[in-house]
Amino acid sequence: MGNPRLSDETIAEFLSELPGWALSANQLSRSFQFPDFSAAMGFMVRVGMVCETLDHHPNWYNVYGKVEVQLWTHDAAGVTALDIRLATQMSKIAAQMGCQN
Are 55 and 3 in contact (CB under 8 A)? Predict the structure, then answer.
């Protein structure tokens, strides 16, 4: 297996440095709030390019300025280093784009 599932303890260490993210049901989740629909969609487009580069894609949806995200690696049935990497990139992009939480 290329991306082994991380232990809850390892995930907790990473989450201590990723404000807003939580672990629930073997998934990382976060809600991003932007000022409007345009900003939320801009975020999704920028993150989409990162997803393509990593060949790793989130479950996500948006309503107006809110983007809900769930990350996990299906093959590992849980969170892997790849999910942590994508969550980190998402948080950086959100901060650059005026995320309100």
Answer: no
> pTM, whole model, 2 decimals?
0.94
- Determine, yes or no, domain membership for 6: no
Residue 20 lies in a domain: no
Residue 69 is given by DSSP the state E
What string of pLDDT tens digits covers the 101 residues of the chain? 578 999 999 999 999 999 999 999 999 999 999 999 999 999 999 999 999 999 999 999 999 999 999 999 999 999 999 999 999 999 999 999 989 88
The CATH number assigned to the domain holding 34 equals 3.30.1360.20
Is 51 inside a domain boundary?
yes
- Classified as helix, coil or strand, 12 is helix
In degrees, rounded to 5, the angle at the alpha carbon of residue 40 between the alpha carbons of residues 8 and 74 is: 35
